[in-house]
Design goal:
The structure is a homodimer. The first copy, chain A, is of the alpha/beta class. Helices cover 30% and strands 11% of the residues of chain A. In chain A, strand 1 (2-7), helix 1 and strand 2 form a beta-alpha-beta unit.
Chain lengths: 276, 276
């Protein structure tokens, strides 16, 4: 399997850097090829701007329409070179790992801006099927790939459990897991989180590395989070759940297939890696 | 009321820029003072790094511990100048408005990095009360302030409703509304969203401006989203909901007070501005 490992931590002696080193070593041991986007080391610019789509400075005085111009520039190969490089890596990969410390309950800005700039319309989403329907949620430009989020958190695990104050992890990460991975067609694996990351003992750190290795071993086979497919019949023309799907339920939890409900409530973020 | 208006759009002729202009005009009409952080215009750097906390280059070879060093630098007034400027504005404000296009179901990177860099430990969170308890969720360094998210979305409103495919808006924005605003003690007002933002007619745009003005008129009085206070008795020592709070419920929805449940299911994101 070909794996793109994208990481976002400013310190090369951090726990995150250690997990990355050990994660890449594990991929090698399991016979996977890998490539890397170490965003801080690359000096990645996360700020989407006119330069993304007008690298030659053309049209500098004209109003910028972000989505449309991203698509047009993508289609004529005119996105800025740093974006094209990342898109080539994404296209190469069968699986994408995103590793980051959880800052304000989401990815650091440098990684958020990788999504903003790299996953443009026409490449990752906004592509149509043979019937003219836009492929989205379970289908899209990145269909067939798998995606795993690996995150470190200062807080204890209990706070991210089904009734923890910070919110159940997979629901807190809904914009990433459902809104980014699943939206573009990637199969979102249950996230792996290291809790209490600020104060791990050496044995605890070794245990977390072992857990990460186990998750990476299962990368090709683990069951994804069973989100509903947009084209699977559960949504009406207004993109609202039909009464027969998750009857009476509302909120982000309703988008996880009910027939997989028996799998919930265990493991990280209330989901087990082998659920489904 | 003193209002800090933070915005994050790369194009000064966009719908977002129009909403910002009209929003600031409305604040003036209602007798509020305002200051601004127009992040693209400022050339704001969203990438948290060693330079934030070691502006003089001291300790350049040493391992960076992000949270601790942010707090130490804050306490000795040694954060980089751009961060101190923003913190001074936050300290000045009674209410904070964050206006942004919704990219990948969250703020653009330039705004995410404003939270990453400005809301440091010791300033926005990690402050203790007289009993040595950390003030968090409904209390914290920014207690007493109000916060309003104003966002624009290409998709239709139905997709962000209680059963819409994109997820109920206030739950999709949970990392911002609960994990950032409420975590630091700010009262999170129900977000205001402009849907179908890519294809508004002129009359529709005028209607959205009128709605925004109405929301800004209510800025001092609107009922916040009724999230539970960490110190309010609903959470145990592990920061897990006690059995008596939202019995049997899990996920992010359980952190909205049940006694406000009758208010849900109407208005933007399933919450009404006057709910509570």
């Amino acid at each position: 399997m070909k794996v793109l490992w994208t990481s976002a931590h400013p310190e090369r002696r951090s726990l995150n850097a250690h997990l990355r080193t050990e994660g890449l070593r594990a991929l090698g041991a399991y016979g996977h090829e890998h490539r890397e986007s170490d965003l801080y080391a690359m000096g990645w610019d996360p700020v989407l701007g006119a330069g993304d789509v007008r690298p030659d400075g053309a049209g500098a005085g004209e109003r910028l329409f972000v989505g449309e111009e991203q698509q047009r520039a993508y289609e004529r190969g005119a996105l800025s070179a740093d974006i094209r490089t990342e898109q080539e890596k994404v296209g190469w990969a069968d699986a994408l790992v995103f590793q980051f410390p959880l800052w304000w309950f989401g990815p650091p800005a440098i990684l958020k801006g990788w999504f903003d700039r790299v996953l443009v319309q026409g490449f990752a989403f906004g592509v149509r099927d043979g019937h003219g329907r836009t492929r989205r949620y379970g289908d899209g430009g990145l269909a067939g790939k798998r995606a795993l989020a690996v995150t470190s958190v200062g807080a204890r695990a209990s706070g991210f459990g089904p009734r923890g104050v910070h919110g159940q992890l997979d629901e807190v990460l809904f914009p990433l897991l459902h809104g980014t991975f699943w939206y573009t067609g990637m199969a979102p694996l249950p996230p792996y989180a290291v809790y209490g990351a600020d104060r791990l003992t050496a044995p605890e750190a070794r245990a977390r590395v072992a857990e990460l290795r186990a998750r990476l071993r299962e990368l090709p086979t683990a069951a994804p989070i069973p989100y509903r497919r947009e084209a699977g019949g559960d949504y009406d023309e207004g993109l609202v759940l039909r009464p027969s799907a998750a009857p009476g339920r509302t909120g982000v939890a309703a988008h996880v297939r009910a027939d997989a409900g028996r799998c919930r409530g265990r493991g990280a973020g209330g989901l087990t890696p082998r659920c489904g």
